[in-house]
Write a structure and sequence with these properties.
Length: 795
């Protein structure tokens, strides 16, 4: 066969990357024969069969330049092997892989002919290892050298990394800034031994003198006072309660904060600069200069491209950029988000809103046009649940208000999220979508992060109602009696609680199945035993023992309305009645049974049943005891409650709450038993008054008698100070009357006060100080304020 006189095309393509990446990384010897073939440009090309073009074999791999890292370690990280064919792409990957080890500052891979093949020569330059870190000139920092080293990114015995050294300089600089040494200079020096390739790093500091901010000047502000501008800054002058140190990062953020404030107020062209001057002694002066520019207002607002949603409905969504109001980019973005939310609620999750603005320099008005591209309505194809480890999918799916085949509906998604939160099983709930083969159909992803639903808790404390109390409780809010041995995941609720104290003790077993036989009907029961010793010096000289239980059924009648049916059976034993007790109490001495049926309706639109900020809760129950249900007592009782929550700033809320109840005897009973009457006064009704002391009082023993009717109203503002702590102010009013027809006679008893709510591992704690505005029944003068302390299950 005639010898090929030109470089074959395949070989040219194979060598092409060498010309792209260049010789500094890869080089290959060119033989004289190759040079001769390259220069023979006039020879006719010949076709060489593919099987004759074979890559050369790697016959040796040599590592040079390494000192600390062995050659075997380098070769073991490469895919190129002795005996394998030489391939440029594999060698390129080897180069990247070796760099990723972090051991070397430079790597080259060259080739040379060796034993009928190629030798790979891997030339490496190792990064120095930090042998020691030292500090020079540090006097003001109250840290040991070891403590300082622990705060740096660079570490002894690790490889030297110059970006980390620069970060360490910033760390040390900020330490000095916090102490007021803003003029401190920090640099480093690196000494590398050529023999051992080990480095000694020294951080050098010139501390200079402590400097504090003496004064901050503001110039150019016409529309806003100096005080308003200075209030925006986190940088403060030195005074009794502020060190007045300069932090460059904080000051830069302050300047941007001033710019953002002006832009939000309509000054879109504002310019803000600053300058820091040193008086040459120990004080700094900061000068902030402002060029406000023109204040822009919104002119006309128009909507284009809308087809399904009328322009009137869209304009009603605009809250910030409306004609005559201040124009700002932030406000316009808020309105765009409102328009997109409106379309999302209608199923247009692909809708796009684009804005255009036209500025009239003469009038200072900005006309805004919102261009809407509605696109198609999107429908839910599948619903996928993610993140649930313990909780069954069905428990989550049955709370969702949106179903496969429905169009995306923002209101349904928001309500679904509220219902999932109200389960108390999840810390976080979020939504996402996935594409399907159909363009206008998306899979809905419900992503949850589970919280701890099981708890074993115990604790104790002091309550103004029950004095010293303690409890032990075992609860699983996501119980599953069939899932042995974990017993979690089906959404049932099981609670076992025992309490003990100086005046009271009890035992309570409660179980609730929210979906009976997979139908939206809840079933539950309670079994309990409670004892209470009421001492005569606080009004009740007797012992009360209640043993009983109930059976519960519930059904959601609509999205927010639920009906409940409860059968209750109690055995009540009144004993050890003190001689000075009231006749109403003495008539109840001995054992009696109460058998009753209760029907209730509840409307609940609160955003969170555990910590509501907005929404309403209305409930009413009618209970009939005796008569067809048997028992020793015959009475009919009605009790109603309404709460309205108003969201305010910074997640605070205002609650307006009212409660009312009436009860009356019938049949064989002439009076309502004293333990079924209404009482008011104290921690849970009208604070500032003694427990149960509002209402009818026995004229001789001064014991409260309770009444057949009650009205209590509360106004409470709650502000979250921290996640676990809330502050509250309140106003309470109400009264209790002996008969149903006496409601309103004698007016109302009122109080006001303040308190805190603390969330603790053993349960929420409520501490209130109430100040009565009226005399307590049976008292000659108004009493002083009173502290109310209690623990409960709600927060």
């Amino acid at each position: 066969m005639k010898k090929n006189s030109k470089i074959p095309l395949a070989l040219f393509l194979l060598s092409f990357p060498l010309f792209i990446y260049g010789a500094p990384v890869f080089s290959q010897d060119v033989t004289a024969q190759d040079k001769q073939e390259v220069s023979a440009e006039n020879r006719a090309p010949e076709t060489v069969p593919a099987e004759e073009i074979q890559p050369k074999t790697i016959t040796s791999i040599e590592v040079t330049g390494n000192k600390s890292i062995s050659s075997n370690v380098v070769i073991s990280k490469m895919k190129s092997r002795v005996g394998s064919p030489y391939q440029e792409n594999v060698v390129s990957d080897d180069l990247k892989r070796l760099f990723e080890l972090g051991y070397f500052s430079d790597i080259k891979i060259d080739t040379q002919d060796y034993k009928d093949g190629l030798k790979l020569i891997v030339s490496v330059t190792e990064r120095p290892i930090i042998e020691k870190i030292d500090f020079n000139g540090i006097k003001r920092l109250s840290y040991t050298d070891e403590k300082l080293k622990s705060m740096l990114k660079s570490k002894e015995t690790q490889y030297l990394d110059y970006p980390s050294l620069n970060d360490d300089l910033s760390t040390i600089k900020k330490m000095y800034e916090k102490l007021g040494f803003s003029l401190a200079e920090v640099d480093y020096s690196v000494d590398i031994s050529k023999d051992t390739n080990k480095a000694v790093v020294v951080f050098n500091v010139k501390e200079d003198r402590r400097i504090r901010i003496k004064r901050i000047f503001v110039d150019g502000n016409v529309s806003f006072s100096d005080r308003k501008i200075l209030k925006l800054l986190k940088t403060k002058r030195a005074w009794l309660f502020n060190a007045g140190v300069l932090k460059e990062d904080t000051l830069e953020d302050d300047i941007e904060r001033v710019r953002a404030f002006y832009r939000k107020q309509g000054f879109s062209d504002v310019k803000v600069d600053h300058e820091v001057k040193n008086d040459g002694k120990k004080f700094l002066y900061i000068y902030i200069s402002i060029e406000e520019g023109k204040k822009y207002l919104v002119g006309g607002v128009s909507v284009r491209g809308n087809v399904d949603i009328p322009e009137k409905d869209i304009l009603e969504q605009l809250k910030s950029c409306i004609p005559g109001k201040v124009f700002s980019q932030e406000a316009m973005k808020e309105d765009i988000a409102s328009i997109q939310s409106l379309y999302f609620d209608r199923g247009y999750i692909f809708a796009q809103v684009q804005e255009t603005t036209l500025v009239n320099s003469d009038t200072g008005r900005v006309d805004i046009a919102y261009n809407i591209i509605e696109n198609q309505i999107a429908y839910v194809d599948k619903i996928k649940i993610r993140g649930n480890i313990k909780t069954k999918d069905i428990v989550i799916r049955r709370e969702l208000r949106i179903k496969p085949g429905d169009r995306f509906d923002g209101e349904k998604l928001r309500r679904s999220k509220e219902r999932l939160k109200n389960l108390g099983f999840f810390d976080e709930i979020s939504y996402d979508t996935e594409d399907t083969v159909v363009p206008n159909e998306k899979d809905l992803i419900v992503d949850v992060k589970e919280s701890k639903t099981g708890a074993f808790s115990f604790g104790g404390g002091y309550s103004t109602v029950d004095e010293f109390i303690g409890f032990v409780e075992l609860e699983q809010k996501n119980f599953d009696w069939k899932n042995w041995p974990y017993f979690t995941g089906d959404g049932q609720n099981l609670r076992l609680r025992t309490s003990f104290g100086s005046l009271s003790s009890g035992f309570d077993l409660s179980f609730t199945e929210p979906w009976l036989f997979d139908y939206p009907v809840s079933f539950g029961f309670d079994v309990y035993k409670k004892t209470h010793e009421r001492e005569s010096d606080v009004g009740y000289g007797y012992d009360e023992d209640i043993t009983g239980g109930d059976l519960r059924l519930g059904k959601e009648l609509s999205e927010y309305v639920k009906g409940n049916l409860v059968y209750r059976y109690d055995r009540i034993d009144i004993s050890n009645i003190s001689p000075e007790a009231t006749n109403d109490l003495k008539k109840e001495e001995g054992k009696n049974t109460i058998s009753s049926m209760q029907f209730g309706l509840t409307f609940d639109s609160r955003d969170n049943v555990f910590d509501p900020i907005k929404g309403d809760m209305l409930s009413g129950t009618v209970e009939t005891a005796g008569g067809p249900f048997g028992g020793d007592k015959d009475f009919v009782k009605f009790f109603g409650r309404v709460s309205h929550y108003i969201p305010l700033w910074k997640k605070s809320s205002l609650e307006l709450r009212a409660r009312a109840g009436v009860v009356d005897a019938y049949g064989d009973s002439n009076d309502v038993p004293i333990y079924e009457r209404f009482f008011a006064g104290g921690a849970y009704t009208i604070r500032g008054y003694e427990e149960r002391k509002i209402g009818p009082i026995d004229p001789v023993s001064k014991d409260p008698l309770g009444g057949n009717s009650m009205v209590v109203g509360n106004i409470e503002y709650v502000y979250p100070v921290f996640d676990f702590l809330k502050a509250a102010v309140f106003y309470d009013t109400g009264n209790v009357w002996a008969k149903m027809g006496d409601i309103g006679d004698g007016g109302f008893k009122s109080s006001f006060g303040f308190g805190i709510r603390i969330k603790t591992p053993i349960g929420p704690i409520m501490l209130d100080y109430g100040i009565p505005l009226d005399k307590e029944p049976g008292e000659d003068s108004r009493s002083d304020g009173r502290i109310h302390f209690s623990m409960s299950h709600g927060f």
